[in-house]
Amino acid sequence: MKSEWISAHLQKADSNIPFSFLYDGKPSSEFMQKWEYRNESRKLDENRIQNNHLWTDSQTGLEVRCETVEYSDYPVVEWTVYFKNTGTGNTPVLKDIQGLDVVFQQEENKAFVLHGIKGDFCTADSFEPYSDTLVAGTEKTFAPPFHSGKSTDGPEGWPYYNLQMKDKGVILAVGWPGQWAGSFMNDDTNGLKMKAGQQLTNCYLKPGEEIRTPLISLLFWQKPGVVEAQNLWRRYYLAHIIPYIDGKPQQPTLQIQVGAAAKDTSYVKEFLRAGIKPDICWRDAAWYPKDNGPYKENESWLNTGTWEIDSTRYPEKFKPFSDFVHKHGMQFLLWFEPERVGDPNSWLAKNHPEWLLPGSSHGDLLDEGNPEAWNWLVNHIDSMIKSEGIDWYREDMNGGGPLPAWRKNDTPDRQGITENMYIQGHLAFWDELKRRNPHLKIDACASGGRRNDLETMKRAVPLLRSDFQWDWMENVVRGNQGQTYGLSSWLPFQGTGVYFYDTYRMRSFYMAGFGMGNLTPENTAAQQQAYSECTKIAPDMLFGDYYPLTPYSVDTAHWIGWQFDRPEEGTGVIQAFRRSSCKDSVKTFLLRGLDTEAQYEIINFDTQEPVVITGKELTEEGLKVEISDKPGAIIITYKRI
Hints:
Structural class: alpha+beta
Number of domains: 3
Strand content: 25-35%
Distance between the termini: 38 Å
Number of helices: 13
Oligomer: single chain
Number of strands: 39
CATH superfamily of the largest domain: Aldolase class I
């Protein structure tokens, strides 16, 4: 399916090109095949071939370059389209640029089924799954909220989709850490039309300027079904998307937060004495100078724009602490929010107002599309990474989002240009930090999990998948169960923190990235239990195939549960939860992915008594699970013997 599609769309000049745009008011389909065309091909590695398809308009000097990467180990192709003015004058206007514009057809059943999840909006139903049947005449549109500019923000803000066509389908991912838009239209005549691109483009290019589309990735699949397709995606993600360092993918992480300088090392030692060794010692916001800016004292962390360490609170800066952390085999994470300049008295606001874009809900934006601002930012943050021994660069973006500032700084004939240049600078900033610091890890955050598109996930992992984690939030426990249920189909690595210390609620937050609240004598035993249990199951949660065992629900009357399975290792884990008003104390789960000819040792974390059951029994008759408590949680691991 992949080979046939590439042959039809990406192998010759007169192909049915999978992107579109208007140029000087005319659709690209009318003139692209008349332009000068050439192709450049090179092998990136044993699994990837890159082709650069180039079209040039001899009259205006516009060069259109479609960079495609085809994978041989997975049925995946991805591409990004670049538009460059190689002439001496301004180009005509480029408008409605779509990085993806294709049609999929079916021979028999004209209905398509679109599977996906919601984005993050800090509620119990963030990442809720959906399956929409697209019958003839149906159109579904998606985008982050109109005020946002954060790529995975809001109910329609998740740019990953699985389009099912009878016994086959295609998974689409859009990589654009800005304001994208997508649509799926079944017109019953030509098939289902898929479009995706930057939401607003209506601009000319000056000589030498270059803009780009979002990254588009397609994974083609055939039966047996949607769940298996999602596991194919997870395997592709772990092979080619999740960041690698020294040839190894990101591993599960345990983290703790550290606070005031006076208690840094002593606080970490308390965890070590309790037998809890975190992977990450995490310092969050408000380590920079405080002042009497426009925000309340308890919101002083919003007063960003001076990226220096407060010498009053941290006279020795962070190097002594990071040296201590490294000596004990741990890593140091530091929080940044360089894009938002929230303090009008900050260093950036006073010294370089020309670098700032006004219009954001929480201050101005540092324009990452400005070369001078970009150079300063790279050099300044890189210097801090080196001098302070930073292992993890955590980048946040709070407030409503950057979109109003981007749009406000566009002129009518240059709509979308500010955002496009900004996004290119943003990604280049991260790439340059990683080039200068090959072992640097990046944690992506934007008021929780609101900027986790494909381009971002190629460079970072979300240690905090959502800000929906605090004990005062309504339905936060059931909501986090639901978030794990929905998000696990798409992101193998996800993290959060838990601030509860009973077994049911702690277990509702276990995942590949895990942390807890302050260590106290009263909760030490609970933290020991939670960190120990999560350590045992996190590798299967990260590297295993994912199988939902119940329907999705956040209702108190329902169970929810899932399975992670690593067939190569013969290991896996079942997590299940009986909610507070659920009448049934027993559930039978038909397990997936097991070897029916093998035997498996089953261990319930609460009884620790191993039981041996055959793979045939577990997959055909099922595993009987009983939870007597209401609410209650159970963790069961298995291993092939």
